[in-house]
From TrEMBL:
Coiled coil: none
Lineage: Bacteria, Pseudomonadati, Pseudomonadota, Betaproteobacteria, Nitrosomonadales
Gene Ontology BP annotations: guanosine tetraphosphate metabolic process
Domain RelA/SpoT: residue ranges: 43-207
Transmembrane spans: none
Name of the molecule in the record: RelA/SpoT domain-containing protein
Superkingdom, taxonomy of origin: Bacteria
């Protein structure tokens, strides 16, 4: 029998064996519950003709390539609606192959993971990639990450099933366990992949990697544009999923992230420490990307996909800046400062996305920075912000207090000497001294609110927390006497505390009443004459009026709140707006 005849015979036997194996695998997928996790399932077996064509093509590069080298005789494609579902499906596939499922018979050879490849065009910070890597690592499965030049993204798992095909060899026949390739991708990636396969399929390995097989290379630019659209759709679908199934990060006092306006001083310090000019230039480019992302956030909203994408691009840039600095800068204070600020900016961009998965990455970065630079309080302050964004109130309070102690320690010396160290430049101190009291006060108030919501709660603990919130926030007023938001927070907390103190029979605090009246006066001047006032400020004013016995004034403000809500005025989160509206209606 000639080589071509043997190839045709073996291809036919592989196809026949593959048909039976395909049925067994599909049954296993459905019976194991894996099928219910998928939006759609596709399968195919390479035909005799396709097998012969593939072997013939591959032999041009590898002379000994034969049908037993083909790893996708059986092809299964598991399709999801969302990228976020892929890691769970990968976990289930690995469990099925490892015989971790109660399934008899199991068609797979136990724990046979011949090859696992993640094809991706995603950035390094993509939580999707991090989660995929974690799933594979937990399963003890070796994998390869391949960045796709043409934008292809999918997870490929090559395994073997127990079914065999008898293949003719030069020495007789051998039993060949049938190979199977399982692909996991989104419905958007699947649609793009079908078009790519038909009109622009390229070689993904070898010296001709990236070269179209069937069609003109002119198709490739159009496919790349289409890929950008499908990627955007996939990301937007995930945004919808997150919005529908998980609560958004609170837009309270931890919601807005403001960078420290000290970059020019930082650049000057880099030069003083002999950081090369080209490194300073790429740092400045990252700053511009961050500023552009901030502008998009102001126009589109913090959690808009365009905002998130812009911040991730900036984070990626600072990651590359940091890696280049680690590789190429000489050890010394200049390198340490440069790496510190590059990483701080990387984490700041991640935190500014408002997306929990990216905020978690920021937490990890800030934690490392706080350990590596223990005398730099800004790192601990930012870590507190990131932790607070994830709803971890107690750790946030502890971190804010630790940062506050460190800041006050450095400031007490610097105020006397007039010199501000690298650990806390004057610009950092100016920013933190105003922002930290506001943010710490909010976390203390938030904890007091939680305790107050518990049945049979400890009223003394709640009172103590409110008092601490008032006292901490008053420090912010000292640092930023013109900050209307700090005045609002102080008046709100003070009103609650004084009312609670009165209900417990405590003595009136005349000094605190005087401070409350002062902040209330600032709020009145800023808010009551405004055309479209902030209903949060109006809510604070109404409550303060009630506490001070100014019932008619409280009713007037409450009526304005109701009118603003009806007209769709300057409002915030629906849940909080509803709470304010209910309070206004009780006053009316």
């Amino acid at each position: 029998m000639g080589k071509s005849d043997a190839l045709a015979l073996n291809a036919a036997r592989l196809e026949m064996g593959g048909r039976d194996g395909e049925k067994n695998v599909l049954q296993a997928i459905m019976h194991s519950g894996l099928g219910s996790l998928c939006y759609a399932i596709k399968s195919r077996v390479k035909s005799e003709e396709r097998l012969i064509e593939k072997v013939t093509r591959k032999r041009k590069e590898k002379e000994k390539y034969d049908v037993d080298s083909v790893t996708d005789v059986i092809g299964i494609r598991l399709i999801t609606l969302f990228r976020k579902e892929i890691p769970d499906i990968v976990r289930e596939v690995l469990a099925l192959i490892a015989h971790g499922k109660e399934l008899s018979p199991n068609p797979f050879q136990k724990s046979c993971f011949e090859e696992i490849i993640i094809y991706t065009n995603a950035p390094h910070h993509d939580p999707f990639l991090a989660q995929l890597k974690e799933v594979l690592s937990q399963a003890g499965a070796a994998f390869e990450l391949k960045e796709s030049l043409e934008g292809y993204s999918s997870v490929h798992i090559v395994s073997r099933i127990c079914s065999v095909a008898k293949l003719r060899t030069d020495y007789g026949e051998k039993k060949h366990p049938l190979p199977i390739e399982i692909q996991i991708r989104t419905v958007f990636e699947d649609a793009w992949g079908e078009i790519d396969h038909r009109f622009g399929y390229v070689q993904r390995a070898g010296k001709n990697s990236g070269t179209p097989i069937h069609n003109s290379a002119l198709v490739q630019p159009h496919l790349k544009v289409l890929k950008h659209f499908t990627d955007a759709c996939a990301h937007y679908a995930d945004t919808i999923l997150v919005s529908a199934t998980t609560p958004l990060i609170s837009k309270g006092e931890q919601g807005k992230i403001i960078s420290v306006e000290s970059d020019d001083d930082i650049l000057k310090r880099f030069s003083e420490l002999n950081v090369a000019a080209n490194f300073i230039t790429v740092y400045v480019e990252g700053r511009k990307l961050r500023e552009e992302a901030s502008k998009i956030s102001l126009n589109q909203g913090a959690q808009h996909p365009q905002t998130v994408s812009a911040y991730i691009q900036a984070a990626e840039h600072f990651l590359q800046v940091r890696q280049a600095g680690e590789r190429e800068l000489s050890d010394g204070q200049g390198k340490a400062q440069y790496i510190y600020y590059a990483r701080m900016n990387e984490a700041l961009c991640l935190m500014s996305t408002e997306a929990p998965e990216y905020v978690q990455q920021a937490v990890e970065l800030y934690t490392e920075l706080a350990d590596l630079y223990p005398s730099f309080p800004l790192a601990k302050f930012r870590l507190a912000q990131a932790v607070a964004k994830l709803g971890q109130t107690d750790p946030a309070i502890e971190l804010y207090q630790s940062a506050e102690e460190a800041v006050e320690g450095i400031a007490s010396v610097s105020h006397k000497t007039g010199h501000w160290p690298d650990e806390l430049p004057l610009a950092d101190y100016t920013h933190v001294s105003g922002a930290l009291p506001k943010l710490l006060g909010y976390q203390l108030w938030k904890k007091a609110e939680y305790i107050g919501s518990l049945p049979d709660h400890d009223i003394e603990e709640r009172t103590s927390l409110l008092y601490r919130a008032v006292m901490v926030t008053s420090k912010g007023l000292t640092a930023r006497p013109d900050d209307i938001k700090i005045h609002n927070n102080f008046a709100y907390y003070a009103t609650q505390y004084l009312e609670l103190l009165g209900s417990l029979g405590g003595q009136p605090d005349s000094a605190l009443h005087a401070q409350l009246s002062s902040s209330l006066s600032v709020l009145e001047h800023h808010t009551l004459s405004a055309t479209n006032p902030d209903i949060f400020f109006l809510d604070t004013i109404a409550k303060a009026y009630q506490h001070l016995g100014r019932s008619d004034d409280a009713k007037s403000v409450a009526e304005r709140i109701v009118q603003l809500v009806q007209e769709g005025g300057n409002q915030g989160e629906p849940e909080i707006t509803l709470k304010i509206l209910k309070n206004a209606l009780t006053i009316k």
